């Protein structure tokens, strides 16, 4: 973990060739005090965030973020550390700024030292996600989630809810 003058970098992922997605505490692109959240940086030598995707409480929502492979860089996936006994897996659709929950899993690992993080990983085409989890009480297991339907039918901010 890197740190300098109130800025903290924790988890990074590369988006395309010249952008970096980072969960950490950084100066907001608009200025002001450092915020915890998911930031997008451009590899332009400034070291400044270009976009704050969403701010969050770093003590609860720090996770392992990654760009979902595919055209446009529209999707981000992330997990959380244990929050009140549960770990969460979600996707974020950048064009609509909407979240798509994928899982809420009971953490059965004992204590923080033996915690099992979900660590979402992708198939080469980005349509299958695997995670590590302990929610069934069987120790660390690998689970497979097909996200094809979500990618093929992204959320529409203006669609009516029925």
Q: Give the topology string: H per helix, E per strand.
A: EEEEEHEEEEEEEH
Whole-number radius of gyration? 16 Å
Range of strand content? over 45%
> How many β-strands, per DSSP?
12
Helix content: under 10%
Mean pLDDT: 82
Number of helices: 2
- Order of strands, main sheet, comes to 1-2-3-4-5
Q: What secondary-structure arrangement, pairings included, does this model have?
A:
Elements: E1 2-4, E2 7-15, E3 19-27, E4 34-42, E5 49-55, H1 58-61, E6 66-67, E7 75-79, E8 86-93, E9 98-106, E10 121-122, E11 128-133, E12 141-146, H2 148-152
Antiparallel strand pairs: 1-2, 2-3, 3-4, 4-5, 6-7, 7-8, 8-9, 10-11, 11-12
Question: Short summary of the structure?
Answer:
The protein is mainly beta. It has helices spanning 58-61, 148-152; strands at residues 2-4, 7-15, 19-27, 34-42, 49-55, 66-67, 75-79, 86-93, 98-106, 121-122, 128-133, 141-146.
């Amino acid at each position: 973990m890197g740190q300098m003058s109130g800025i903290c970098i924790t988890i990074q992922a590369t988006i395309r060739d010249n952008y970096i997605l980072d969960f950490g505490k950084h100066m907001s692109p608009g200025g002001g005090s450092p915020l915890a959240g998911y930031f997008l940086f451009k590899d332009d030598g400034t070291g400044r965030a270009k976009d704050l995707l969403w701010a969050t409480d770093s003590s609860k929502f720090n996770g392992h973020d990654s760009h979902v492979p595919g055209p446009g860089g529209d999707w981000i996936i992330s997990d959380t550390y244990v929050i009140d006994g549960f770990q969460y897996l979600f996707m974020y659709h950048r064009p609509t700024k909407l979240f798509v929950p994928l899982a809420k899993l009971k953490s059965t690992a004992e204590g923080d030292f033996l915690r099992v993080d979900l660590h979402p990983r992708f198939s080469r085409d980005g349509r299958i996600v695997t995670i590590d989890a302990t929610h069934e009480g069987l120790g660390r297991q690998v689970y497979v989630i097909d996200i094809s339907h979500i990618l093929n039918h992204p959320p529409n901010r203006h669609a009516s809810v029925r």
